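Page header: ASSEMBLY MODEL / two components / 618 residues total.
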Amino acid sequence: MLKVPEHQVAGHQALGGHLGPLIDDSGRFYKPLQGDERGSKEMSFYTSFSSNTRVPEHIRRFFPVFHGTQLVEASDGSGRKPHLVLEDVTSGQFKPCVMDIKIGSRTWYSESSEDYIQRCLKKDMETSSLSLGFRISGLQVYGNKESEVWKPERKVVQKLDADEVRLVLKRFVSSDPSPDLESNPDCCYASSVYGGSTGILAQLLELKAWFEDQTTYHFNSCSVLMLYEKKPLLPKKGGSSAAEVKLIDFAHVTEGKGVIDHNFLGGLCSFIKFISEILTNPDEQSPRTCSQYSDKNGGATENGAAESK
Amino acid sequence: MLKVPEHQVAGHQALGGHLGPLIDDSGRFYKPLQGDERGSKEMSFYTSFSSNTRVPEHIRRFFPVFHGTQLVEASDGSGRKPHLVLEDVTSGQFKPCVMDIKIGSRTWYSESSEDYIQRCLKKDMETSSLSLGFRISGLQVYGNKESEVWKPERKVVQKLDADEVRLVLKRFVSSDPSPDLESNPDCCYASSVYGGSTGILAQLLELKAWFEDQTTYHFNSCSVLMLYEKKPLLPKKGGSSAAEVKLIDFAHVTEGKGVIDHNFLGGLCSFIKFISEILTNPDEQSPRTCSQYSDKNGGATENGAAESK
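Prediction written out in full:
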């Protein structure tokens, strides 16, 4: 029984009878194969990547597991259509906090049509892509209260400037994701989600090292997904917040032809700088509300961010 | 007494009565201040950079020393004009091998005029900038015979593809810089010029680490200059080839505003990958002619590249 995914923050959505991805209860994500070149490109990528023995195992985990393609009833009622069958990365999570960041100051590539280049160029200049080397495509953050969720307008988050992006990245790891721009986010989860030996920053640095070397694929217009589950009152044994980084959206991947993906790598390094600044500037955190939510066995200390000062 | 520099490989040139840079015998390089915004931008950069205490000393050495501005007789006979007074980086060298590499897949920036953006974009697409993240703007390589020098057409080197750039980078460190595309360059100087703890690669990696962190300047349309002096029969005591990396051309530097220069960094990483591949693929070198030229006290072994296999 397929249903509309609850935690999608960017991309085409099936809600309201449109064509979009679906999920099932076994943890699979069904992405309709776009009719034009994009669908075949994305399938080619997954097929090539799955069988590429030169991709190290510690890098492979950053990509959704690919289960092939399958004909399923499309979400727009247009009958059975081919879908990519992928891992549903938020499967089993009750309150997944998710952010989709499209990496690269340029979303077009030389093989694109003149019209596509001009449209992308315009969007890259209107959004933060050109200035920051990435743009936030969408996000959702749960609060600690049962019903609280912050899911800002995609059109707004794409165009944030550097200071606003910093604030959103702090709010993403705070106990209260309140959209009130005046409030100072407490960054309670910064050390357990962004920091630590298995946190987001460590994972991004692993990806970066691979991008400094790999010359097989150019990940045009591809996104980094950051996700972790908000469990304020249920600190887990064993430590980490189980925060994860995934790469998604491969409809515009092209061959690297022996050259590294300098566009993706540059944008990734810029994003890494934003994350690491949050971890190295603890004086900008306000620890007053952190202790009750800190993950006692996690990256944060018993007093949350307070003791990292 | 000012004269036309002999070893300039890119940029405006004073030869034939044009407006271009001049040098003197004391090791200074006089660059005419371009009348438009570019001149004032370049001067602003040198002034800001000279007094910026946040630039580490080991990074400062990658920039030409700045001695202020001076009114000198312009090379085009138009009278006394203001010039930037800089360090002449090839001063005192008899056979400097020089390569100018313009870094970045994008040479324009958001503050540029629409017309400038379109012109740069066209050139970035026509040259290797878009595909490789950099383009070679010019080079000269001396051979071991007295009169031999290879100084290919700038218009040609800008448009080389990845394989051709690899070949040029090999030829730059070979005993015979013959432009015969069929010949296999011997890479005799690869380990002493590109390799070693003070070679080109080590210097580029230092620059890279700084670019991962610095958010003060965006070096749009700026070049990395690689230089070393060819002294085949005079191996120096103490080791290295004294190969140097310099950053030049700051007429389009803009404020970083708290964001790293992801465009420059991405291109620099791509260039680094090309250089490191030459060092890690010794099997593509042909060591047969190397021993007589190897730097006995330098990065290379007594048999040159042969023993690195």
